[in-house]
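Appendix B, example 12.
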Amino acid sequence: MKPAIIVSRPIYAEVIDRLRNHFEVTAHQTDPEWTLAGWTQALSAHDGALTMGIEPVNDAVLSACPRLKICANLSVGYNNFDVPAMTRHRVVATNAPDVLTETTADFGFALLMAAARRVTEAERYVRAGHWQKWALDMLPGMAVHGSTLGIIGMGRIGQAVARRGALGFGMRVLYHNRSRLSAEAEAECRASYVTKQALLEQADHVVLVLPYSKESHHTIGAAELAMMKPTATLVNIARGGIVDDAALAQALLSGQIAAAGLDVFEGEPSVHPDLLKASNVVLAPHIGSSTRATRLAMAHLAADNLIAFFEKGTTLTPLNPEVLAAI
């Protein structure tokens, strides 16, 4: 009898078809609005799950799902997983790194450019019929080429953003990370390690690419925003909660910083109402990795992890490999 797999939300039909070759698949292709109780009950009837980085897998859920053996997140982020709890319950956790690195870095730079050069403000200006003539001081933005780029979080995506800035735009690149990169990696990215305060004080453009955790909650709040230049931009392509959105909204509305580009939000899909009042922020609905090729690759990697686990007792991208070792 084939193992039973639940796919929590809609994914590409070709991935579902592939999974059906190996598993009994419960595919939720109509995007259910899960309640915690509903999700837990559905998960409890399955041996494995393909999740979207949204559905919680924590101690309470796991206690109700003794049959569960693996959860494969389609996303690189996994703050929906309580990995220590999954390890205690001997449930393998996997994510989908690497395949979205370059696409997400592209989008991070797109947000940086749009915020710095006031692209969305300019588009609204034209659509509203305000553009009547050319003027020297019309919607002046902040320079990108030759400016200073600060990156907080220097994993795969952070390094990809650094390369774009240094090699493509001749930017001076500063970074802050929990641990310093090797000399070779720093040289490849042309990046210099500095303290968080020094980065905030010196950077013209700050890009956030760190994973969310209790420790990284509100990495950027009112105090950090006060350290930034009044001409600086802030870009968040990491996770909601890393920025105090209420504090950022006030900084934007007051002109404390020049602009921001946000792909993620606290409590998304809700957006802080004061951010909606700010004309100097570019808002996107968590689409950093959203090209079809990349999202398809993410889905296939999650499927690869499920197939490898049930057929070979291994996975490609485990988050708690000690569970595999104990099987």
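The chain has two domains: 4-99+292-326, 101-283. The two ends are 20 Å apart (CA to CA).
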